[in-house]
Design a protein that fits this description.
The chain is mainly alpha-helical. Helices cover 77% and strands 0% of the residues. It has three helices and no strands. The longest helix has 27 residues, at 63-89. The radius of gyration is 24 Å and the shape is elongated. The mean pLDDT is 89.
């Protein structure tokens, strides 16, 4: 049995000899690459999922440091909101 490696959507398969078929494959790959690059919500969702998984892994390994990090972030947000409100009310 041969080892078949799947081709990503943004790549052109090797071994296409027909010029028309090759042009179609290149166009299809180019359009897929453009869609992948331009789809900001999907890219943002993937990045957020990755960061959440990293944060969960960190919290599982070191819960005390994770609690301190959450407290620090909450303090930073609180100071930023307080500063914004103070600037607005002056």
């Amino acid at each position: 049995m041969s080892d078949i490696v799947p081709v990503p959507r943004t790549a052109v398969p090797v071994g296409i000899t027909d010029p028309v078929e090759k042009a179609r494959a290149e166009l299809k790959a180019a359009l897929a690459a453009i869609e992948e690059k331009a789809n900001v919500p999907r890219r943002a969702g993937r990045a957020i999922e990755q960061r959440v998984a990293e944060a969960r892994h960190f919290a599982h390994r070191n819960p005390a440091a994770a609690a301190l990090a959450v407290a620090g972030i909450a303090l930073g947000v609180g100071v930023a909101v307080w500063g914004a409100v103070r600037l607005y009310t002056r």
